[in-house]
């Protein structure tokens, strides 16, 4: 839709929209609607330069051939409610930029292979530390549906707010059992079944409602151990919430306030981190998190990391600080990232670069 192109106005991005330029591509983050849009970097720079300025005065600073480029991008932004033209300069109310809650720990990962863990005590201790979210990943058939149900019950009785399961496909876990598990436990925010025969999302409905409320996500991708973690590809990046966006500007998106218990029962920052803070028993978690070495990567944020610091995805991509291109450099780019911002292309792409499109909603 073409907007009224009057230069006698102030141009402003809306308060919850941000434009991040990379070397080739730019990305507009719409935090309110959790969407983002890919645009060429030259347009992204133009938007950031114009933001908050009187359009007529701004255009006077540019060669006349660039004016049409400005109006082209302005039309797109205004029609998508990302920006507007205003008769008076706007001072938008600042978005709340709190990055976390008061807890010592924000999220936890517990890995399960052959050996089961003492979930009752672990969840009790996580709760005492103020942990909000728990992810349980299983690499074997050891966790059956009954156990998933029991863990969910324990989490529901705690102060934790969310539980994610990433479990191995097992022909013995019927879809009906897993659907019932989801419907019985609202605390389960995500259920992924890896190593499945096919990749598909199965909607789950409540008996009295035809509208699917939940989903079981089956994927052929295998999670054999914690060494399969840390992959960064197009599918692993989604438009962030405001909290994630600001968190990625200030602290580490993956390891900050995280704690884990590996399949071997050892406590670490994440299951793939080197070293160990002891085998889990009640109290081990509380002791580990006050160790300075345990928190070593917590404050490493995207604006410090090689390559990531210029990447337009940097405030959406949650990073990996364990598998690094240069393992001796804590500021090195994640080794398993398949995006090169200097080329503007994902390595799995077969040809078409994002910058081939002028403005594009990224889904
Ligand atoms: S730091 Fe890397 S390996 Fe560890 S949990 Fe995060 S993504 Fe996975
Ligand atoms: S270059 Fe860095 S910020 Fe960009 S996608 Fe890769 S890991 Fe994420």
Jot down its keywords.
alpha/beta; 8-stranded mixed sheet; Outer Surface Protein A, domain 3; 22% strand; globular; 4-stranded antiparallel sheet; binds iron/sulfur cluster; 8 helices; 363 residues
Walk me through what this model shows.
This protein has 363 residues and is α/β, with parallel strands linked by helices. It has two domains: 77 residues, Outer Surface Protein A, domain 3; 182 residues, no CATH class. It is 21% helix and 22% strand. The chain is built from eight helices and 17 strands. The longest helix is centred in the N-terminal third of the chain and has 16 residues. The site of one iron/sulfur cluster has 10 residues, from loops.
List the helices and strands and how they pair.
Blueprint: E1 10-13, E2 17-21, E3 25-30, E4 35-40, H1 41-50, E5 53-54, H2 55-60, H3 64-79, E6 83-86, E7 107-112, H4 119-128, E8 133-138, H5 145-156, E9 162-168, H6 175-184, E10 188-194, E11 200-205, E12 212-218, H7 242-250, E13 258-261, E14 267-268, H8 284-288, E15 339-340, E16 345-346, E17 360-362
Parallel strand pairs: 7-8, 7-13, 8-9, 9-10, 10-12
Antiparallel strand pairs: 1-5, 1-6, 2-3, 3-4, 4-17, 11-12, 13-14, 15-16
The protein binds iron/sulfur cluster (2 copies).
């Amino acid at each position: 839709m073409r907007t009224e192109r009057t230069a006698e106005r102030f141009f402003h991005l809306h308060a919850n929209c941000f434009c991040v330029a990379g070397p080739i591509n730019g990305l507009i983050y719409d935090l309110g609607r959790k969407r983002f849009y890919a645009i060429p970097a030259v347009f992204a720079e133009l938007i950031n330069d114009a933001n908050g300025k009187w359009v007529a005065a701004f255009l006077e600073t540019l060669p006349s051939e660039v004016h049409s480029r400005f109006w082209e991008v302005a039309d797109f932004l205004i029609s998508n409610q990302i920006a507007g033209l205003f008769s008076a300069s706007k001072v938008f109310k600042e978005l709340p930029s709190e990055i976390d809650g008061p807890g010592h720990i924000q999220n936890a990962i517990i890995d399960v292979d052959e050996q089961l863990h003492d979930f009752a005590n672990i969840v009790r201790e996580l709760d005492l530390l103020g942990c909000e979210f728990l992810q349980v990943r299983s690499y074997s058939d050891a966790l059956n549906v009954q156990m998933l149900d029991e863990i969910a019950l324990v989490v529901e009785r705690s102060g934790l707010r969310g539980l994610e399961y990433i479990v191995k496909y097992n022909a013995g876990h019927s879809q009906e059992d897993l659907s019932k598990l989801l419907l019985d436990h609202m605390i389960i925010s995500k259920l992924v079944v890896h190593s499945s025969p096919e990749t598909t999302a199965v909607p789950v409905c409540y008996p009295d409602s035809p509208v699917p409320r939940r989903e079981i996500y089956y994927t052929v991708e295998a999670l054999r151990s914690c060494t399969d973690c840390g992959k960064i590809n197009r599918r692993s990046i989604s438009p962030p919430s405001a909290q994630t966006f600001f968190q990625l500007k200030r602290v580490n998106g993956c390891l900050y306030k995280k704690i884990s218990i590996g399949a071997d029962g050892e406590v670490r920052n994440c299951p793939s981190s080197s070293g160990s803070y002891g085998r889990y028993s009640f109290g081990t978690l509380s002791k580990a998190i006050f160790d300075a070495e345990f928190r070593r990567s917590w404050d490493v944020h995207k604006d410090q990391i090689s390559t990531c610091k210029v990447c337009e995805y940097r405030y959406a991509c949650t990073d990996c600080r364990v598998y690094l291109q240069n393992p001796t450099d804590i500021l090195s780019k994640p080794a398993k990232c398949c995006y090169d911002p200097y080329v503007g292309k994902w390595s799995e792409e077969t040809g078409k670069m994002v910058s081939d499109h002028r403005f594009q909603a990224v889904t």
